[in-house]
Amino acid sequence: MAKVGSKARSQHRCSECQHVTAKWVGRCPDCGSWGTVDEIPMLTPISGGVANRAVAPSSPAVPISSIDPGVTRHVSTGVDELDRVLGGGLVPGSVTLLAGEPGVGKSTLLLEVVHRWARSGRRALYLSGEESAGQIRLRAERTGCTHDEVFLAAESDLQTALGHIEQVRPSLIVVDSVQTMSTTEADGVTGGVTQIRAVTTALTSHAKAAGSNGAAIILVGHVTKEGAIAGPRSLEHLVDVVMHFEGDRASALRMVRGVKNRFGAADEVGCFLLHDNGIEGVADPSGLFLDQRPAPVPGTSVTVTLDGKRPLIGEVQALIGSASAGNPRRAVSGIDSARAAMITAVLEKRAHLNVGQNDIYLSTVGGMRLTDPSSDLAVALAIASAYADIPMPTTVVAIGEVGLAGDLRRVTGMDRRLAEAARLGFTCAVVPPGVTDVPAGLAVQSADNISGALRVLRNISDNVRDNGGRR
Q: Does the pLDDT of residue 396 top 90, yes or no?
């Protein structure tokens, strides 16, 4: 009778691209990533033995129709803007990753979340590997987030952290951050690829083991200088929800952007304002991106952009300087410089505006970033308004993409954009042709190309002037 057994041998696999090599290398030969190649054991059968045997499952597979959909439901965090991104709240037994740059306000937001969670009668555990419990208490007092059902533990060892979870038995766990946690059951330094994967796998397995009766876990993640989440790419695959916390240090505005969500839409955006005494959600952020003034001035234009599924009002400001003898200067803030240069060239070539020799300065209001092509028309009208010294009425919005041929193209979500403009009191919209779904109270002026849009702008301005300046 042939002997059946197995002997162990090892291979090395890249955690980024899953490329397998016979020996360890510092850099993956396939994708070029550094430090992502790890050893994986393999079992090779001996003498024709079978290495993989069937094992009786502990619980049988059941038809999907027999599973009660109400077993797993969203539980509100108490922070409406965060619930919007999560799809209604946290799901018991789920793992959420919140990543952002240092100092953007991740810990402040999550301290507000655990406070509101505890205030609703549930228990929360805040595990910190970056700060002591005393430091967290100081911030909690400053932001008014102290509650007896919020438990704090300054711990960076995974096994001890799991012990805290078993002892406290919370329904919400915050780990700040996953890069500072380590386990003795995995090799590598703290914050390395191997450690991060091992810690995340253990926490995910702990959450999934309890299922719908388990605690929801929020992991805080660091980002690299390029803005990507630090650690292996498989980290984003292990968790259920991935969110990016974004914000400029020069502005109080913060945005939580959904990247992955197994329980809801993955393109939602939540807006917050970070203050010295805490953080608050902004349910209607459009007013933050508008410059409040009593009368229209040349060089301004308003558009409606879509950030995920959320329509936001944004204002573009343009300033035309004197003609330069050498190379004219182009300075932009909040707008893609390449698209701004393209729109300037289209205005000069297709609309015959001699703006190429002038210095051009473009900016948005409130630190808003306009990356959506739908803002092209607003940028073009702002430049033309500044060049001709004709003010654009403040009740007019411009929505449309500008092509190199000077044509105007429709953009997605036009109905939501126009509905948001009508809700905020705008009475006229300059759009490409073909728009039919127009909300009540909003008049639409269509233009086939950039020259037609400039004529519409002049006609609207003339009508305002003839009516005695009423906008």
A: yes
